[in-house]
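TICKET: design request
STATUS: open
ATTACHED STRUCTURE:
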């Protein structure tokens, strides 16, 4: 068991290092592409693409006030974008009813594919 715990610890440390390096590289690539005014780039045998994605961030209080009853609120337990989208698709709640309960956050995704 000692070896498993030791290995787990080592892997977690390595994971932190990798995540830190990925974050730094991502920032450098995004900065380069922003400076170039590019959304796509080819680097050697790799294709880089920036994809703009919108994400909703719900305000708990406003959402609670906008929901038709407390049962729906319990179904959500906390604002979960995919659950809310499902409730809209099922016509349990309407988009109009919750229109003032969220803000839209733009997120840039970095995609790197090998050609």
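STATUS: resolved
RESOLUTION: sequence designed for all positions
ATTACHED SEQUENCE:
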């Amino acid at each position: 068991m000692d070896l498993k715990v030791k290995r787990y610890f080592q892997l977690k440390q390595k994971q932190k290092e990798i995540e830190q390096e990925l974050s730094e590289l991502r920032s450098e690539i995004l900065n380069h592409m922003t400076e170039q005014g590019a959304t796509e780039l080819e680097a050697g045998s790799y294709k880089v693409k920036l994809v703009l994605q919108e994400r909703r961030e719900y305000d708990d209080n406003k959402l609670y006030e906008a929901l038709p009853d407390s049962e729906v609120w319990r179904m959500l337990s906390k604002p979960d974008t995919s659950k809310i989208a499902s409730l809209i698709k099922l016509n349990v709640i309407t988009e109009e009813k919750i229109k003032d309960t969220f803000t839209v956050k733009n997120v840039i995704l970095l995609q790197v594919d090998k050609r």
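CLOSING REMARK: The first strand starts at residue 40 and ends at 43. DSSP finds four helices and three strands in the chain.
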